[in-house]
Amino acid sequence: MRPNYWRILPGSFDCFLPKRQTAGRKSTPEMETPGRRGYAWAVGAGLNAALAAVSAKLIASQVTRYGLVILFNVTMWGCYVNSLKSLSSLQATVTNFATNFLTSGLAGFFLFDELLTPKWFAGALLIVIGVVVLSKSSIESKSKTE
C-alpha cells in the first residue's frame, strides 16, 4: 500500500506539497491524536466558510470575488471531509457550524461595523457549550465501547 503523500491544509495553497518526512522517528499513540486533528480540520472548514462570506462582501472585482468564494468553499469542503475521517458527522458539522458562526459574527463586527447584541453573545455561548458537551459525551461513549 502506497503512503498518502498529498493532503489539504486548512486555509492554504499547500495542498499539492508532500508531507514532511520525519527521519527515523516513529510516531506513538500519544503523538497521534486523530480526534484533535479532526477538530482542527473542522475548525479549518468553518474558518474557510467564513472567509468565503467575507471575501464575497469585501472584494470589489467580480471575477476575483467569485474566484475567492470558489477557492474558499473548495478548501472548506476538503477540510470538512478530512474532519469526517476522525470525527462523527455530528461532531464535524457542529464544530464547523460553530466556528463559521463565531468567525462570521466577529468579522461582521470588526470589518463591517455590525452590532452584536446580547442575544448574539448568548447564542454564541450556547453553541460553544453545545460543542463542548457533544465532544465530551462522544469521547465517553467511545471509551465505554472499547
Automatic annotation (TrEMBL):
UniProt xrefs under Gene3D superfamilies:
1.10.3730.20
Spell out the InterPro entries in the cross-references: EmrE-like (IPR037185), TMEM42 (IPR039632)
Segment forming the signal sequence: none
This protein's record includes keyword Cell membrane: no
User: Membrane spanning segments where?
Assistant: 39-60, 66-82, 94-112, 118-135
Entry membrane topology? Multi-pass membrane protein
Q: Does the keyword Transmembrane helix apply?
A: yes
- UniProt keywords, alphabetically: Membrane, Transmembrane, Transmembrane helix
Annotated compartments: Membrane
What is this protein identified as? Uncharacterized protein LOC116213430
Organism whose genome encodes this protein: Punica granatum (Pomegranate)
Which gene name does the record give? Answer: LOC116213430
